[in-house]
Amino acid sequence: AEQLIKLLNDEDLWVCFAAAESLVKIGYVTLQPFVESVYGPPFYSDYDEHIVKVMGEIEDPRKAEPFIKLLGDENLIVRRAAAEALGELKAKEALNPLVKVLKSDEEIVRKSVIESLGKIGDRQAVQSLIEALKDENSDIRISAIESLGKIGDRQAVQPLIDGLGDEHWEVRWHAAKVLGDLKDPRAVQPLIEALKDDNSDIR
């Protein structure tokens, strides 16, 4: 294992990848070398993203901690990978750090954060996801709708009804689908009205 740990900082990107994957395969369960590798000399954004994903495979009850730290990394690709990993871990302790990132980061990171909040499934994230329904990027609005659907909190019903009037048909389609899944009686009439939508996919 010691030699493989050294190879995490090899000049060859593919050697680093192979070393990281081999460490996990042989059951190496200490996060520290992986964390040091990410925080070490910069190579490529793909490298840090790959190492962060490998870290997510390590069985360690404390493994959310380094990912939460990586939400503040200067590399947005690393921040995105960290957000995705926290979602896969369903790390409720990451809820507040993720919400904080959601308010300030790049679009690709915000999208990953929103998707992860849905996977974590904590109702405390609902208000932040409702706010994300106002994002100027339609893909982010769609991700917020899907995450609200996963959490299933009824306070999202009216904002989702409002989503039936979104300018993008994909947003309207996802809003209609999630409202149907939530089965809230408040959505019945708005969904009937949605049958008149100009886009056949909505009808």
Provide structural commentary.
With 203 residues, this protein is mostly helical. Helix content is 64%, strand content 0%. The protein is built from 13 helices and no strands. It is elongated, with a radius of gyration of 20 Å. Residues 41-45 have low confidence and may be disordered.
- Would you identify the regions where 5 or more consecutive residues have pLDDT less than 50? 41-45
Task: Indicate the structural class.
Answer: mainly alpha
- Report the major sheet: none
N-to-C series of helices and strands? HHHHHHHHHHHHH
**Proportion in β-strands:** under 5%
**Coarse shape:** elongated
Number of strands: 0
Q: Mean pLDDT across all residues, rounded?
A: 82
**Count of helical stretches:** 13
Radius of gyration: 20 Å
End-to-end distance: 58 Å
How much helical structure, as a percent, in the residues? 55-70%
Quick synopsis:
This protein is mainly alpha-helical and 203 residues long. It has helices at residues 2-7, 13-25, 32-39, 45-55, 64-70, 76-89, 95-102, 107-120, 126-132, 138-151, 157-163, 169-182, 188-194.
